[in-house]
Amino acid sequence: MALEEVTSGGQPWRLERRIEDVTDRLRVLALKNYHVFVQNQQCAQVVTSELQSLGDNLTSVQTSLPSLVSQSKALDTTVHDAAKTNAEIQYVLGQYAGLMGVLEIPQLIDGCIANDLLEDALETIQFAKKLLEQTYTSSMQPKSSNASSSIVHTLVAEVKRATTALRAKLVDKLRGELPLAKCLHLVAYLRRVDGLWTPLPADYDYHLKQEFLACRDAYLSKTVQSIPTSDAYNYVSRKI
């Protein structure tokens, strides 16, 4: 029954009765489904709490995000460096057999010098110089690793040290008792050794001559000092 029909028909009691009926039904419905309303309220509280916690967590994440980005960049750099180091190690391992042979060159030169194998020592130095120059040129290529370049520099330094030792050996021999032919042979060795790593200067021959004379003078002085002075005749004859 519509509201207009009830009011126009002069039956307000019907409307009141209808309202009371609806109210009773709502009351019964509320009592019957009370637990639903309670659960709904509890659910709303839980959702509100979870949303608050989510908001707090989101704020914490936003606060920590710059630090996380910085640490991620640092980790990326560390991983990149580790990968680069690993590539260098793998390169060295791949060249191990040849590398071991090259690394033994300074020891081989030292062995030749110690056993007076001067020609062998000089030829080994010349071979090592040529080989290391080629390897150094290759190590300067963009794809070459820093490890190979470092190894080449170390070997060059070792071979140069051995060259210096060979030269010292030659000079020391010139201070000994030698025939003239042997002395000239050693001087020729000195010239070859001095021209290995740097070009010979214009006045090189003059300085080499002075060094040769100084060596022979040292030998003569040592020889004279070793002559016994008890026999004057023998002393004078040997000195002359």
The proportion of residues in beta strands is under 5%
Work out the helix count: 10
Mass-distribution shape: rod-shaped
How far apart, in Å, are the first and last alpha carbons?
160 Å
Tell me the CATH architecture of one domain.
Up-down Bundle
**CATH first level of one domain: which class?**
Mainly Alpha
Mean pLDDT: 82
Family: Belongs to the COG8 family.
Keywords: Golgi apparatus, Membrane, Protein transport, Transport
InterPro entries: COG8, Cullin_repeat-like_dom_sf
Membrane topology: Peripheral membrane protein
Can you give a write-up of this model?
The structure is a single chain. The longest helix is centred in the first third of the chain and has 61 residues, at 34-94. It is built from ten helices and no strands. It has helices spanning 3-8, 12-32, 34-94, 96-103, 105-114, 118-139, 146-174, 180-194, 204-226, 232-239. It has a domain at 94-239: Methane Monooxygenase Hydroxylase, Chain G, domain 1 (Up-down Bundle), CATH 1.20.58. The chain has 240 residues and is mostly helical. The model has no long low-confidence stretch (mean pLDDT 82). InterPro entries: COG8, Cullin_repeat-like_dom_sf. One of its GO terms (biological process) is intra-Golgi vesicle-mediated transport. It is a peripheral membrane protein.
